[in-house]
Amino acid sequence: MGTRRSDANGSRPRVLVLGGGFGGIGAARKLGKSPVDVVLVDQHDYHTFQPLLYQLATGLLEQPAVGHAIRDLFHGQDNARIHQDRVVAVDFDAREARFEELEPQPYDYLVLALGAEVNFFGVEGAAEHSFPLYTLRDAVRLKNHVLERWEAADRKPELAEDGALDIVVVGGGPTGVETAGALAELYNGLLRKDYPAMPEGAGRIVLVEASPEIFSMFKPNLRTYAEKALVERGVEVRTGDVVKSITPERVTLTSGTVLPAHTLVWGAGLQGNALVRSLGLELEKGNRLGVDAELRLASHPEVFVVGDIAAIPDAKTEQVLPQLGSVALQSGEHAGETIARLVAGKETKPFKYRDKGTMATIGRGAAVVQMLGGKTMKGKKAQLAWGTVHLALLPTNEDRAKAVVDWAGAALTHQRTGRIRVET
Ligand SMILES: Cc1cc2nc3c(=O)[nH]c(=O)nc-3n(C[C@H](O)[C@H](O)[C@H](O)COP(=O)(O)OP(=O)(O)OC[C@H]3O[C@@H](n4cnc5c(N)ncnc54)[C@H](O)[C@@H]3O)c2cc1C
After folding, report:
1. How many angstroms separate the CA atoms of 221 and 380, rounded?
2. To the nearest whole percent, how much of the chain has pLDDT over 70?
3. Half-sphere CA count of 184, side-chain side, radius 13 A
């Protein structure tokens, strides 16, 4: 592959990394010791730890525990430059990316790590009135809205009868289940104490899932366990029904049921980042980009695609790997290592995913884990495994220490210090 000499002194290959999520950070960090110039661009100045967004939305964690300054992550890496901007186009022939403000950035190697975004599947009113949970802003917006509804109902009790405190969560996958479970614990714990005048039982949480069961990606024993754990926490699980339309105060299902609820959390679907649709490439299921065994585009071998935006086949099973933090981190790291090997004139190796399991928490002491080989775990043991895997994904040791302190504090005191609204 030809290498363009595009750095300031004309001697080092230039690696452009688009996206500062697990995939992008993993790739850029693995190039720290390589004789290349790394440029990483993200639309935000922070890296978002999506697996903990539901904990931010329910006041268990505060903003800095879920968002980490990207520049901070590269203080020790002299060959990396960070920019905050939105990428708007990639020209594979010219080998450059274009941005809203930044001048076009040329590359010798490109790492596409732009992640996925919410898919509303065209449901009427979903884009305007629902609360997705995919970004840090989404989590803060959901928390503020829920707390605002409790304040409003406290001032005007008839609002509670109109559904001000009721929440419909759409989607029986990990995002929907984790959020419903966490909201139920927030409601049954602190909010009832915060608002003693609210009638007993006010505030319904309903989880709606189109399939006959929640957690379709897990084995039947874990599905049954998760549903029971949700019901024990007071969540109503409604399967085999689909959200048809949403207004700010009502949710209509295809069965004809109308649920009065002033909050609808959208956890029902993802698709590849919008930018992929402009690349002129064939897209796979969920608008993801197909890659070869080394995570490159077949048509442009200098372009690596990692994380949620990529359809990565598992080396053993050949099935497309799930959109998980550990897949994103490992694939990003592999792309960084492969570029370093190419620059050093070494042989490259195919990507092999080391399975950390697919997992989700339903609430305190309740979690499920399933390994690619089919082994399963549930309950406290699974929650411990969840904690270990997610601590490893956090970008720094300080973040890990902070999360442990916050989780231990919440487990001991049941406090949620983040449950305040800060006006902006
Ligand atoms: C609510 C939720 C819970 C989850 N829970 C878990 C879990 O428990 N365990 C687990 O393993 N995984 C979990 N996941 C999945 C995991 O978070 C993702 O698989 C992972 O974040 C994907 O990493 P990525 O680097 O591919 O993309 P992302 O983390 O999405 O990063 C993409 C980056 O690209 C940036 N970007 C996007 N578009 C542009 C643009 N046009 N210009 C510039 N920058 C742009 C974004 O700002 C972002 O920083 C969860 C996801 C969600 C949403």
Report:
1. 16
2. 96
3. 25
Q: pLDDT (tens digit, 9 = 90+) per residue, 337-351?
A: 999 999 999 999 999
Q: pTM higher than 0.90 for the full model?
A: yes
Sign of CA dihedral 45, 49, 55, 58: positive
Q: Which of 324, 353, 389 to mutate to test the pocket of ligand 1 (most atoms within 8 A of CB)?
A: 324
Which amino acid type is present at position 221?
A: N
Question: How far separated are the first and last CA of the chain, in Å rounded?
Answer: 50
Report CA torsion sign: 411, 414, 417, 418. positive
The residue-averaged pLDDT of 67-94 equals: 97
Residue the block writes with tokens 């695609």: 305
Q: Which amino acid does the sequence have at 296?
A: R
| Both structure tokens of 273 | 């980042």
Which protein residue's CA is at the shortest distance from atom 8 of ligand 1?
51
The better pLDDT of the pair 101, 404 is held by 101
What tens digit of pLDDT does each residue of 361-385 get?
999 899 999 988 889 999 999 999 9
Q: Kind and range of the H or E element at 332?
A: helix 325-343
Q: How far is the CA of 275 from the centre of ligand 1 (A)?
A: 15
Q: Which helix (H) or strand (E) holds 383?
A: helix 380-393
User: What beta strand segments (E) does 241-315 contain?
Assistant: 243-246, 250-253, 258-260, 263-266, 270-272, 283-284, 288-290, 296-297, 300-305, 310-311
- Closest listed residue to residue 79, CA positions, set 1, 11, 2: 11
Q: Provide mean pLDDT across the span 199-227.
A: 94
> 224 CA to middle of ligand 1, Å?
28
Q: Which amino acid is at 121?
A: F
Residue type present at position 115: G
User: Which secondary-structure segment (H or E) carries 403?
Assistant: helix 397-413
Could you tell me which of 268, 290, 279, 255 has the C-alpha nearest to residue 123? 268
Which of 114, 326, 327 maximizes ligand 1 atoms within 8 Å of its Cβ, making it the mutation to test the pocket? 114
pLDDT, the chain, mean: 92
